[in-house]
Design a protein that fits this description.
The protein is α/β, with parallel strands linked by helices. The protein folds into two domains: 143 residues, Rossmann fold (3-Layer(aba) Sandwich); 54 residues, no CATH class. 31% of the residues lie in helices and 19% in strands. The N and C termini lie far apart (39 Å).
């Protein structure tokens, strides 16, 4: 989508003056309900391979040994090795999300967009997902990851910067330790919020006795 006013520069390219198809090859996306758009009869390894071509069906003639090796590497990285031959349709929601992460990274993108990746996950699945995202820092230090969420506890420890929005308006932005404050979060959610951090992870809750009026 192009802006109605102003301009957008993305990965060194200016929107409207670059080939969007070429730009898309540099961006990995995991969005809500993406799993429902894929053929659930394919096994996990095949689903991951389709990320190399950005297609919903496999293009077998384009998957050489290097591409297959990368798929195996990513499947291992996200803890899906034991799922490789399992039909995608019978994987749990948490397993699906990890498979989609691997799929989105097949094209070696420079920008990785995650739209509420932990939505609908139980606690063990969420923690496994966050551990997988944190592991990306060790495997690709040049990759920029942008994660959208409503819950501070879904932020990986590797988060460096934050941006808060309320009603489409900017509330605060900057280094994570300066942005995720009780004052800023209270303005963002329009209720009193207390923020704490422990072991590199963030937590937010309303103070005891608070009631919405």
């Amino acid at each position: 989508m192009h802006p109605t006013e102003g301009r957008v520069e993305l990965l060194g390219e200016r929107m409207g003056r670059t080939d969007v198809r070429r730009l898309r090859e540099k961006i990995g996306v995991v969005e809500a309900r993406l799993d429902r758009k894929l053929d659930e009869s394919y096994d996990v390894a095949t689903i991951v391979l389709t990320g190399a071509t950005g297609t919903r069906i496999p293009l077998w003639e384009r998957y050489d040994e290097l591409i297959r090796a990368r798929a195996e590497e990513l499947i291992e990285l996200f803890g899906c090795a034991d799922l490789a031959t399992r039909p995608f349709g019978i994987c749990s929601q948490g397993e699906r999300q990890r498979v989609l992460l691997a799929r989105a990274l097949m094209s070696s993108p420079r920008l990785f967009l995650l739209d509420e990746p932990a939505a609908a996950l139980d606690l063990p699945a969420r923690e496994a997902l966050l551990a997988a995202i944190e592991a990306l820092t060790d495997t690709d230090r040049e990759l920029t990851t942008v994660l959208a969420t409503h819950h501070l506890e879904e932020l990986p420890r590797t988060t460096t910067h934050a941006l808060l929005l309320h009603g489409g308006e900017l509330v605060a932005s900057g280094p994570v330790s300066e942005t995720l404050t009780s004052e800023a979060l209270s303005r963002c959610f329009a209720i009193p919020i207390e923020v704490s951090r422990r072991d590199g992870r963030w937590w937010a809750h309303a103070p005891a006795g608070w009631r919405r009026t």
